[in-house]
Amino acid sequence: MGKGQDLYKLAKTLIPGGVQLLSKRPEQFLPDQWPAYYQKAKGCEVWDLDGKKYIDMSFMGIGACTLGYADDDVNTAVQKAIADGNMCTLNAPEEVELAELMIELHPWANMVRYARGGGDAMTVAVRIARAATKKDIILFSGYHGWHDWYLSANLGENNALDGQLLPGLKPAGVARGMKGTSYPFFYNNKTEFLELIKKHGANVGGVVIEAVRNVEPNEGFFDLLTKETKRLGVPLIVDEVSSGFRMNCGGAHMILGLQPDIAVFAKGVSNGFPMGIIIGKKEFMDAAQDSFISSTYWTERIGPVAAIASIKKMRQFNVQKHMMECGKKIQEGWAKLADKHGLNIHVGSIYPLSHFDFNETPLVLKTLFTQEMLAKGFLATNSYYSCFAHKQEHIDAYLTAVDQVFELISIATKEKNPEKYLKGPLCHSGFKRLN
Ligand SMILES: Cc1ncc(COP(=O)(O)O)c(C=O)c1O
User: Fold this and answer.
1) Which residues line ligand 1 (CB under 6 A)?
2) pLDDT tens digit string along 273-317?
3) What is the Å distance from ligand 1's center to 145 Cα?
4) Domain check: are 313 and 340 in the same one?
5) Which residue, 351, 388, 313, 320, is CA-closest to 61?
6) Which pTM was predicted?
7) Closest protein CA for atom 3 of ligand 1
């Protein structure tokens, strides 16, 4: 245990849950051993508080850094914004430049609003939908953040959100009066969606989905969503917070054949600087004027400046093609190496957000994988988020290490007691109280 774990112990006495994002909890990776904090991050390299260097082949800032950490071009643009004044009584002109750029990339949209976080931006979209339709119920699929409109789905049925990415999300603190205002359905499940429409259709104010995550859309799924939302006159909202700017320069809906009314971007659009973007059709977006949607720091300058610089660089270097290729190499590498060592794994997800699962004793083997990869100098888990800073040399080094770690896991599995190789507790698999 290094300085990072010491600091994390202190953090847990001062900050409930220790950190601000569940996915950054050290317990999600390797309890008691994960370095927890960084002093510097550049490209795909990370230095912990003890000065130890790692290659990040895990989440790259939980999906925020599509170009890589501390990208020189984005940083230069941001440094100019800081020097010229990040905040002012007047507005930042880059808000308009970014709006034009987003509409150029998504010609079906003609209006834009901003927030900073992904969950915030999604909440703006849902507010606009309810304001425009004057109806309360939101049908959704996937993960959309921590806000009340989303968590209220768990007021009805305690585990309604399980299976929508993060299990165990608790709605404590969400007003019980919100029960029955949002209902989940599973991606690609047309029957489930139609049942919800049958039951709640008259009161549905919007339908929310992630463009894509673990599986590709089935034939006819998007068409059904479009048909039903059009029939009801309510917006189809696509959440591109994780899927946007990964497979193509813009929303994944553009290449998957989904025609939304509103699309929401955050995270990967501004390379580590806070930015949330809501784009949509005027007929719905205009309702943003009928509701009070307003926040001081949604007007600061760094967000739009970072987004413009990131998008321009992604466009110039065809970054998404690189990210797709990296993910493909990693997925193929996992599958080939698992085969070589006789391991039973499932590999999936879109290439830039690649993922594998051990089919037997998954948590034990995942913990062992992270533990052994860390010892070899990699931040690694059973997910790999690609970025522009990942070069062939990183992929080669990573797969060489995976080869060795899979060999050990294969031995441990054959001995039927893989726990004995663990130097600490098992990693966590979902949301829970820490102490
Ligand atoms: C699809 C999707 N929507 C919304 C969010 C929430 O974004 P944020 O964590 O920036 O609030 C996330 C975060 O992972 C996400 O993946």
Assistant:
1) 117-119, 122, 142-145, 210, 239, 241-242, 266-267
2) 999 999 999 999 999 999 999 999 999 999 999 999 999 999 999
3) 5
4) no
5) 388
6) 0.97
7) 144
